[in-house]
Amino acid sequence: MTNDLERDLGLYATITISMGAMIGSGIFVLPALGLKKAGPAVILAYVLAGLVVLPAALSKAEMATAMPESGGTYLYIDRAMGPLAGTVAGIGAWFSLVFKSSFALVGLGAYLLLLVPLSGGLVKAVALGLATLIVVLNIVGTEQSGKAQSIIVTAVVVALAAYVLNSGVAIEPARFDGFAAKGAGGIVTAAAFVFVSYAGVTKIASVAEEVENPDRNLPLGMLGSMGIMMLIYTLVVGAVVGLNDPKVLSTSGPGGGPSLTPMADGAGQLIGGFGVVAIALVAILALTSMANAGVLASSRFPLAMSRDSLAPRRLARVSERFQTPRNAILLTGGLLIALIAFVPVVELAKLASAFQILVFSFENVALVAFRASGVESYQPSFRTPGYPYVQVVGLLGGLALLTQMGTLPILGAAGIIVGGVAWYLVYGRSRTDREGALGAIIDRRREEESVTSD
Would you indicate the residue range of the signal peptide (predicted)? Predict the structure, then answer.
């Protein structure tokens, strides 16, 4: 076993891994749920959510070129704010991404039922089988996983483009009447709800150590995928709203709630039964892709934490045969399978969403800490424009959305924070004595005050 990973992900694979983490529940499940909160203005909610995510994407793109190593969110917050904050961010981001992956695999059950009448047990068995396949694919090699991701995402994007183009002849303008009738509050609430649709944009930073020419490919991959997905979300959600009776979207789901298959509902309106089958197949591909990207990215958190002595050392081992972090992938895959098998992941995914908003907000703080500290080791090849105003907007925007998540998700985020602090105190504190860039700022100011007082 070694601890080095190979750089074998090119720009296209980088973009498609990032897009694959976003093309999933945000398109195939959430539009109808967002419609119930904002009405037709759910389209604007997706745009608003993307704009709130953009500062964090810019910040992370800069930090990724300065530290093109595995770990992403954990690595940047740890180096900026110290190992305690890094431990909380690493554990929380790891849980959040695994929850999202398990939610994607369980969520595809609604689309499976459109194809074949399976029992609940069989749907779960299919999800478990796909989870096992994804874990094996990630162990066999990042390059193979990246190639599979590229093929799946390309096919899904082509299908979505066809969906949007064909919907132009069937959209009923009357369905956009009362566009913003639920007001700005409804749009903001819906934006907080669909925020997780964009959370995958920075996942590629978690595998930065495996990206070719990271100075070029990381910023282009993150920002390129972000721009493409904002356009796709706007067009697809607009098509869903225009194709469907709002009552169908709002009440045709389980227990009379919002539909869990809004894309298929729209396809049925567009081209009948064949359209439903086609979209169901595309949704299954997309949700599987989202889960694959989640395992690929989230498994790098325990790897990075292990390298920093904040997790057991065996998680840092890299397979000599496959050049992948096998133990970290097995740990992540084990949690994924356990969640699917035993836990109501739909509810837990909502709790994890609040923590993701919090992490995105503090990634902006991490960048400010690096810039203000002036540490010599921080030498990014890409610098985010509009510093520090972009970061301030990102922080405030994220915190504003967090207030719209409701009490239970906020308590869930607080629980993740408490768990991360406990792990650091019990395991990590005695094994590390690092301080982050923020600590360097504090030390420098203490020295300045000491000189002044003398």
Answer: none
Burial zone of 271 (CB within 10 Å; 0-12 exposed, 13-18 middle, 19+ buried)? middle
pTM exceeding 0.90: no
| 11-441 under CATH 1.20.1740.10, yes or no | yes
Tokens of 267: 């396809």
- CA–CA distance, 50 with 202 (Å, rounded to integer): 12
Answer whether 412's CB lies under 8 Å from 356's CB.
no
Rounded Cα distance between 394 and 52, Å, is: 6
Residue burial 99-136, b: 16+ Cβ < 10 Å; e: rest:
bbbbbbbbbbbbbbbbeeeeeeeebbebbbebbeebbe
* Pure H helices in 200-299: 214-243, 246-251, 262-271, 273-298
Residue-wise pLDDT for 203-261, tens only, equals 677 667 778 888 888 888 888 989 999 999 999 999 999 988 888 888 877 677 788 78
Which sign, positive or negative, has the C-alpha torsion 190, 196, 197, 199? positive
All structural domains of the chain with their residue ranges: 11-441
What the block records as the tokens of 174 is: 């009357």
Among 389, 306, 417, which Cα is nearest to 59's? Answer: 389
* CA terminus-to-terminus distance, the chain: 54
Contact 207, 300 (CB under 8 A): yes
Q: What is the pLDDT of residues 90-121, one digit of tens each?
A: 998 888 888 888 878 877 777 888 888 777 67
Instruction: Kindly state the helix (H) or strand (E) to which residue 154 belongs, with its residue range.
Output: helix 142-167
